[in-house]
Design goal:
The protein has 400 residues and is α/β, with parallel strands linked by helices. Helix content is 42%, strand content 20%. A hairpin with a 2-residue loop joins strand 12 and strand 13.
Length: 400
């Protein structure tokens, strides 16, 4: 998922990192990047940072990932850690704000001296850390930052130390278009997107391109603005275009109300969105009945028949008393991706970890087999989930 980019932060953060790095280099006996630290009991640990949205507008995403990261760390440490060293997890709340995410990344790399960072959950907060990760040679894994700009800059160059666990936005738009055309057999569609969100606009563009390529017709393109609460006038225009399907790329805060109001206006056709819908809060906002006949693209379903997915669901339910969602699964997978890379690297040096992540091929994770392409994009499957009476039900899995 993506909130707005904050490229202007790069210059300021780079200067600040340079000052901090200079100070650190001048300290007698200071830890070098990638070295292990001593824990309170005298044993060696591997410090891993978590830069997450634990409060603020999209705290549902960050807290979901934090819960699963905690579970993964507990499991790994109970099983002997990474190469015999326990993980020391350092969590920082970026407050769902890009500037805060930059500050958190600076703290984690210069003060806490973590060997890697997991987070942020959103693309905007992830992009805000890219320069820090690059300057300090600290691998960063965004569990759910789906914008291509997380791993590839506006100049087309790959951000060398940045990775993601989730699939990218264009893939989600393509999956939605193919599902509408091939599975639901619809010929006409409307698109209703947040016009201030690069995430929503990217998904919408990808959907339109692939839906039309499959022979479909877009009968309406409408937009809304984040924080809006009354969508009825625009939804009325969409209804008048008589679509067989409506694609609504956006975040649960607005989408929940859009779904509710659409059903109240008599728009009863299938509605579909992407991973931005995936929050328990959407059921509270929309209502269970209104969500019937809606679909989302996500990375994980607790009903996925895959054995590893089911085992994770059982462990998560045992710890937290509820079924995991895709953000839980992506946070969990990010820890195991990092563990695998450190073990294959045989080192906690940032460059060696980065090279090991780049070489990841068919790693078995909860969200499926995971490989990395030349742009640091994952090659992996997507899951289609259908809402049935307020519950997420596994529909199908789509391979890349």
């Amino acid at each position: 998922m993506k909130k707005s980019k904050f490229a202007s932060l790069f210059l300021a953060s780079s200067l600040l990192v340079g000052m901090l790095a200079g100070c650190a280099a001048g300290e007698e006996g200071s830890s070098s990047k990638g070295s292990e630290s001593s824990s309170a009991n005298g044993g060696e640990t591997i410090k891993i940072g978590a830069n997450l949205e634990l409060s603020g507008a999209v705290a549902s995403y960050g807290t979901s990932e934090a819960d699963a990261i905690d579970l993964a760390v507990e499991e790994i440490n109970a099983d002997g850690g990474i190469d015999g060293k326990k993980i020391e997890l350092i969590k920082v709340d970026n407050k769902s704000d890009a500037a805060e995410a930059t500050s958190a990344a600076i703290k984690l790399t210069s003060q806490d001296k973590v060997v890697a960072i997991i987070g942020a959950a959103t693309s905007g907060a992830s992009v805000a850390q890219v320069q820090i990760a690059t300057d300090t040679k600290t691998p960063m894994i965004s569990p759910s930052g789906t914008s291509t700009t997380v791993t590839v800059g506006d100049d087309g160059k790959v951000n060398p130390f940045t990775f993601r666990t989730a699939f990218i936005d264009p893939f989600q738009g393509t999956v939605a278009a193919n599902f509408a055309s091939n599975e639901l057999k619809v010929k006409t569609a409307a698109v209703y997107a947040d016009n201030a969100s690069d995430y929503a606009k990217g998904l919408a563009a990808s959907f339109i391109k692939d839906f039309e390529a499959a022979g479909g017709t877009i009968v309406a393109e409408e937009s809304y603005v984040a924080k809006d609460t009354d969508f009825r006038s625009t939804l009325t225009r969409i209804k008048s275009s008589n679509p067989e399907f409506v694609f609504i790329p956006g975040y649960y805060e607005e989408v929940g109300l859009i779904v509710k109001q659409a059903r109240e206006l008599g728009i009863n056709v299938p509605l579909m969105g992407a991973d931005g819908w995936d929050s328990p809060t959407i059921v509270d906002l929309a209502g269970a009945d209104a969500l019937n006949n809606t679909f989302i693209i996500t990375a994980y379903s607790a009903d996925d028949p895959d054995g590893k997915a089911k085992a994770f669901a059982e462990s998560f339910n045992k710890k937290y008393g509820k079924e995991p969602n895709s953000f839980n699964a992506l946070g969990y997978d990010s820890v195991y991706l990092l563990k695998d890379a450190i073990e294959r690297a045989g080192s906690t040096d940032g460059t060696k970890i980065k090279e090991a992540i780049e070489a990841t091929d068919q790693l078995e994770l909860v969200t499926g087999l995971y490989s990395v392409d030349e742009n640091h994009h994952p090659i992996k499957s997507a899951v289609i989930i259908e809402f049935v009476d307020g519950k997420q039900v596994f529909n199908t899995k789509v391979n890349p």
